[in-house]
Structures
1.
Amino acid sequence: MKFNHYLASDFEQFEKQFRTNFINSLTGFKSANLVGTIGSDGQTNLAIFSQVFHLGANPALIGLIVRPDTAPRHTLENIMINRYFTLNHIGIDFYKQAHQTSARYQVSEFEACNLTPEFSNRHIAPYVKESHLKIGLELAERHHLEINGTILLIGKVVEVFIPEDVIGADGYIDIEKAGSVTCSSLDSYHTTCRLSRLSYAKPDKELIEIQV
Amino acid sequence: MKFNHYLASDFEQFEKQFRTNFINSLTGFKSANLVGTIGSDGQTNLAIFSQVFHLGANPALIGLIVRPDTAPRHTLENIMINRYFTLNHIGIDFYKQAHQTSARYQVSEFEACNLTPEFSNRHIAPYVKESHLKIGLELAERHHLEINGTILLIGKVVEVFIPEDVIGADGYIDIEKAGSVTCSSLDSYHTTCRLSRLSYAKPDKELIEIQV
């Protein structure tokens, strides 16, 4: 395999869009979620996010990176006002509509992208009816990342909606069977194919493949 | 589709391992990387991480969540001492060895899991020779997340090594072709299959599929 070697000083010489595509590719595959919020005027908002990550199981906490300078700026405003937001896994059957939410709309992205808002009686933020795995969160902590002005929001999971046939006996959720997609770089969407689940690793013990 | 509905109060009733598998599944597909570090005694360390995410393209910044109470605790110590660490994409051909690094070893995980340390002349941290996409980072910022004591480390990318045949004309890196895997929950590994790359979204403009 022939490797190219790039230094940070090379990145500065890259054409801007080349650099954006390139650097966004580096971290590997990402989660693909729609974040649903609502404004103080009652207008729903939907934005696609790939920087969503597990922070803890007990209490159940999820982190989200928000760029104040890019399209989903309403998301941040709405969360700061209403404290609640939703995460909705992007499915194979509506990933193009999900991608389209990144355009700068004046109207609600639900309407513009032909997705359906859905509400629970627990909080004010809208879910995406078309999504197969939906998470309701309450804002718990906010961090300003000095180095480039991005913001880390931490949400506490208040409720989840999951198809009953993808929850395993040991709590593992088969998001592949549920139809969740993954994404890479800024604009590439992928389905997945399981290699295997592996047993808990211990020194001097052979790994076993777990049946799903 | 029949949905199950769970509240935060239900999570508390879950058996511990069930809860861990369940909550770790919620965020969707994750990146799968090995983090390479070296201690003040010169012992190399390798740990698998799925909470790695893009933070910015210019400067190129990557975030990493570290749980001080779980296995990769040497990673944090070593980064705080030496300031440098590496990220190495996990490939299809060594994902079981990568998973095995999560066992609690006294010796270096490179040795225990039959992976090969490799060094550049730019910094002290070890790369994984078997990996096809390698990133060298310098610690730039650290945040303590009050709510559960986890730590966010932000690294500035100092160099990358990438196979030349996976870098597109517009900077997109085809990590699927390169052989990177994705993971879900705590122990499930998946290959991917591209649905498509989509054009930049604008209101009232049809999305176009970009050739890779």
2.
Amino acid sequence: MGVDLKAPIKVYMTRKLIGVSPDDTVKRAGEVMLEFDVGSLVVVEGRDVVGFLTKGDIIRRLVIPGLPNTTPVREIMTTELVAVPSTTPLGDVLDVLSKKGIKHILVEEDGRIVGIFSITDLLEASRRKLETAIATE
Amino acid sequence: MGVDLKAPIKVYMTRKLIGVSPDDTVKRAGEVMLEFDVGSLVVVEGRDVVGFLTKGDIIRRLVIPGLPNTTPVREIMTTELVAVPSTTPLGDVLDVLSKKGIKHILVEEDGRIVGIFSITDLLEASRRKLETAIATE
């Protein structure tokens, strides 16, 4: 598939971090997820990433307990951020995702969050390379 | 990665279809998704698959409109089922997912739903093959 497990994760991550404020409602966060077709958002306060929110977090912490969609993001976001350095090989990142049972991970450089990687990014990277290969046949 | 784009999708799909009833509440469906760690469920009535429910459907049709978690699954499930024959090559299936902007697809054999394929299955298949390769080095 043209995917190199030894390549650094920065090759496969996306730099397009979609952010919401911790004071935004979960309704708004859901709308942003659908608008940008992403399964996770970073929660940003000032210049800092203070949390992370996935569709799974919304199911687990809002839908199941039956909280209203006006609940602020800060009440259900994940504050323990999982991040890997941007030089980490893809294979090692897949290992972390698999062991932790997660589908998205933040990528850092010099202590700053610079990107995010999800399994979907890998699919898209594979497809792009595949299409390139077909186009140059 | 040891992933063969020409192999039939039945090699990569999972036969473990996790089902709920159309009369189950969305709260229950969310609990089942978390319990089995899946992003989608088939909705089963008698022996028939009558619908499909993803985390995205729950965000779009329950969380954003602010419906209660006691809403029955049948009110927010997707009834237009997207399925491919089990002999379809993986590469073609990835194409369908990409074009339709979806992450899960049903797999059929002789007009019956026999499995489901998601991007996560591909990751797991890649990892299993990778681990096998490492173990036999």
